[in-house]
Design brief:
It is a single chain. Strand 10 and strand 11 form a beta hairpin. The strands form 11 sheets. Strands 3, 4, 6, 7, 8, 9, 13, 16 and 17 form a 9-stranded antiparallel sheet that branches. Strands 2, 5, 10, 11, 12, 14, 15 and 18 form an 8-stranded antiparallel sheet that branches. Strands 32, 33, 34, 35 and 36 form a 5-stranded antiparallel sheet that branches. The chain has 15 helices and 51 strands. By secondary structure, it is of the alpha+beta class.
């Protein structure tokens, strides 16, 4: 019997033996699907996770200020008294007055802790108010000079028997004579318009770690105020609910990018770098230097009085924190061009233009050693694996070709590991380095020693579900053995940039944070990632060119970044009397592991019902905004261009997918009974109907900014209607498959199909039993079609398209024998013999991993294969 079953059995036994009311039993149920982002982010070793509930104060309208109700359902029955402890931090604002908390007793008692720093003729910080007026005050001097913007520990004890009240601020305790006959209490923080008299004066505070102890100093409530639901949060002791109005959760800063600034700059080819300590962004062209301070939100423009940066079309700018100088470098010149802020001069006066040779290379500067380290890059239709090191002491570049160990590439991420080595991840290129020879994305990680130029391959993802490249700078967190890269879809111009967290020891990664818009125009675009020196904030910079205007945007996210799902707190679920009786009869383990479900299945018939609704010519191939992507990462782009897919909880996402996929299956949708069976099988019909209506309204609200999408109920079936302006990649694939099956070979249709399916498998990061057959049926139909299409006479000598087709087959089934034969045959025709052996070895490795035995297919059989 597993731990979960033991837990249920223990609860049942206690209910039977001690007559505990079953309706009061609550506990956290196990998740219905795998969590694809770990919780370790919440306990990061660097200790910078932002905690607490931020209270909206006088900066907002009265009816939009934050309130926290610790007793929304019933009062706390504590006749012998209790102790309330919490941490509070003040923000220095123009207005600092307001209620921190209010305690109400069932005898008419009220106790308020009020911030009144700006009270007339007073330097009070706190005032404790009772039914008859002021009970105690505390001044700034009592708390120390650093009272504001630092955590203050507040502790209040109400003890009716001794007629005492104790107030402790940062361990300085005051004892107050206090009489009450209350036996039950209600507790509120901040705004409260439910209980009279109403509270609308809310001080600018953040609160965390609220604890309540009974008279025996036993902890009975503990709200950390980190993980949360939208407007509710549950305590750690017994999942007791607290309700929040207008919440602002500090931990959410780790899951969402915040736009810091946007600049529309005239001209092209700006260069960028970052001052970690001062948190300054430098934007440089030939005429001026723009310095933006993230802290002060000020932009300074500096016009050099002498000299010029190197005339480049690549970002080759660095910052020297020791000398406070900018460094412009050029690989064909054995000197650096430094900008001195005191004299406002560049050391270089040569205005000769240098053509792009190492675009989008990785780089970093070692200020103590006075060295620049650069690797890889692209120029003149050539990818490189060149390691270049500049020493200021020697005033010379050293160059080393690492192509034997790392295939040539650009658009990879590079980060300094220590004084002797760096890590390099991913990129786009090929083994020959020649652009014309079918380049592709890499997803491998290397460690390079800059002393002896040795290379260690750490791991290789082989392929990603959605092809992507990365910004040039990698952020390494050695304490947690992870690193971060800013990634984007390099096969599309209008895209989104997203942050990945990778393990530095094993080939594992997941998405953190939400996405930011990014237009990728190769050498005319730039993206970068910077970490502040205090490791509290991570910054992303994007640069895009339109009509000779360079738009530069800086975003920030709290460090360490997290996936939005990791900060969601699952609400506890109650077991009904039905389950109580059921569990008494059947062992819990049998219920948990042996309950079976019937699966739904998507059918690709000879005549698609979807094609009858919307002709294939009227469904857009690609349209951002208003797009739904089910291949690879689950993504929904609304009419405003924002990715709202990350805001879906597991339940809302499951309901949305059930409606959408059942609609695409036959055009009819899903019945209420089928929906209940998949999502709320443990509820009776009435309860399921109520919950369903709540979730439908919630999903409709989430999708309100997608005008061409609507959730409707027709003849008892729930469905999603898509207008032509809404693009869905999976719907498009269904129609393209149908078109090829019905109308025969069409090169344009095949190319579009391969472009879409190569982005990744169907809902690859989402697992659910009802999805298994849909995924399997889709993959089987696709592979069957691709194999049949590969034999068409029109493809006989089109090796580029055939290779694209073979890669798509192996993406969906890496042990498909025909797929590996076809790919190796194409590589043989292209005389890329080295890649044949690598392709075959990958096939063997994947086969052994899946079947625990070697395949029968030999390299000799592959060499004789002809399609």
């Amino acid at each position: 019997m597993d731990l979960y079953s033991k837990h249920i059995s223990s609860i049942l036994l206690r209910c039977i033996l001690f007559c505990i009311p079953w309706d009061s039993v609550t506990f956290a149920m196990p998740p219905n699907e795998p969590v694809y982002a770990d919780d370790f982010n919440l306990s990061a070793s660097d200790g910078h996770v932002r905690e607490g509930l931020f209270f909206y104060s006088f900066e907002t309208d009265k009816d939009k200020r934050t309130g926290l109700d610790l007793t929304p359902d019933k009062s706390l029955h504590l006749p012998k008294g209790f102790t309330l402890v919490f941490d509070v931090k003040f923000r220095v604002e123009v207005q600092n007055f307001g209620n921190i908390f209010r305690i109400l007793g069932d005898d008419g008692l009220n106790v308020d802790l009020v911030s009144d720093y700006y009270a007339v003729n007073s330097n009070n910080t706190f005032s404790l108010m009772g039914p008859k007026g002021v009970l105690a005050t505390s001044t700034i001097s009592d708390l120390g000079a650093e009272a504001f913007d630092n955590w203050i520990r507040v502790k209040i004890t109400i003890h009716p028997q001794s007629k005492k009240l104790l107030l402790s601020l940062n361990d300085v305790t005051r004892e107050i004579e206090f009489e009450t006959h209350a036996s039950a209490y209600e507790i509120f923080f901040g705004s409260n318009t439910v209980r009279r008299p109403n509270i609308t004066d809310v001080p600018p505070i953040t609160v965390k770690n609220i604890r309540i102890y009974n008279d025996e100093q036993k902890l009975i409530r503990f709200w950390k105020l980190t993980k949360h639901s939208n407007n509710t949060v549950y305590d750690e002791c017994g999942h007791h609910k607290a309700v929040v109005t207008y919440p602002c959760w500090m931990i959410d800063d780790h899951t969402k990018w915040k736009k810091e600034c946007v600049f529309n700059l005239p001209g092209l080819f700006y260069q960028y770098t970052f001052d970690q300590k001062g948190e300054r962004v430098f934007m440089v062209n030939a005429k001026e230097i723009l310095v933006y301070s993230i802290h002060s939100k000020q932009l300074e423009t500096i016009i050099p009085v002498h000299g010029i940066p190197f005339n480049l079309e690549s970002n080759q700018l660095l910052y020297d924190p020791i000398s406070n100088e900018l460094i412009s470098y050029e690989f064909v010149r054995n000197y650096l061009d430094r900008f001195n802020f005191d004299s406002r001069t560049w050391s270089n006066t040569n205005e000769e233009k240098t053509y792009l040779t190492f675009g989008h290379h990785g780089k970093y500067y070692m200020p103590k050693e006075k060295k620049i380290v650069a690797f890889a890059g692209y120029g003149l239709h050539q990818y490189t694996s060149t390691l270049q090191i500049y020493s200021e002491d020697e005033a010379a570049w050293s160059s080393f070709n690492l192509a034997d160990s790392i295939p040539p590439r650009y658009l990879g991420s590079m980060g300094q590991l220590d004084d002797q080595s760096f890590l390099y991840f991913g990129g786009f290129g090929n083994f020959s380095g020649r652009q014309e020879e079918l380049p592709s994305n890499f997803y491998d990680l290397y460690k390079v020693d800059i002393r002896n130029h040795s290379v260690q391959k750490i791991w290789d993802l082989q392929t990603a579900e959605v092809p992507f490249a990365s910004a040039s700078t990698m952020i390494i967190d050695k304490g947690r053995n992870v690193f971060y890269t800013l990634s984007f879809l390099n096969f599309r111009s209008s895209s989104m940039a997203f942050l990945h967290e990778y393990s530095s020891t094993t080939p594992q990664y997941h998405l953190v944070g939400d996405s930011i818009p990014y237009l990728f125009y190769d050498v005319q675009s730039h993206a970068d990632l910077f970490l502040s020196s205090d490791k509290k904030s991570l910054y992303a910079l994007t640069s895009e060119v339109r009509d000779s205007i360079t738009t530069t945007t800086v975003y920030s996210i709290a460090y360490p970044p997290m996936n939005s799902l990791t900060v969601l707190q699952e609400s506890p679920k109650k077991l009904s009397w039905f389950w109580f009786l059921f569990l008494l009869v059947i062992p819990p383990i049998f219920i948990v592991w042996n309950k079976k479900k019937k699966h739904s299945q998507i059918i690709l018939p000879e005549e698609s019902t979807l094609s009858d609704q919307v002709p294939i010519s009227e469904i857009p191939v690609q349209q951002i905004p208003s797009s739904i992507y089910l291949l690879g990462e689950f993504t929904i782009i609304n009419d405003e261009g924002s990715n709202i897919g990350a805001t879906f909880t597991p339940t809302t996402r499951q309901i949305f997918l059930l409606l959408l996929l059942y609609t695409l299956k036959d055009g009819q949708g899903i019945s209420s009974n089928e929906l209940k069976k998949e999502v709320w099988e443990d509820k009776d019909d009435a309860s399921a109907r109520n919950v369903r209506n709540v979730y439908m309204n919630k999903i409709r609200n989430m999708l309100k900014d997608m005008k061409g999408l609507e959730i409707v109920k027709v003849d008892g079936y729930w469905k999603i209607t898509l207008q032509p302006q809404v693009y869905c990649d999976y719907a498009r694939v269904i129609l393209l498959i149908y078109s090829l099956k019905k109308n025969g070979f069409n090169k344009t249709v095949l190319n579009e199909l391969l472009d879409i399916v190569s982005r990744g498998k169907l809902l690859c990061y989402i697992g659910a039993e009802w999805l298994d057959d849909i995924k399997s049926n889709y993959s089987n139909n696709l592979i069957e079609l691709l194999i049949e299409t590969s034999k068409a006479d029109e493809l006989k000598n089109d090796y580029n398209l055939l290779l694209k087709l073979a890669n798509a087959i192996l993406l969906y089934d890496d042990t498909e024998e025909y797929g590996v034969k076809l790919k190796c045959y194409i590589l043989r025709q292209l005389k890329r013999n080295r890649e044949i052996r690598l392709c075959y070895q990958k096939y063997v490795d994947d086969y052994v991993k899946l079947y625990s035995e070697k395949p029968d297919l030999s390299i000799d059989e592959i060499s004789k294969f002809k399609p």
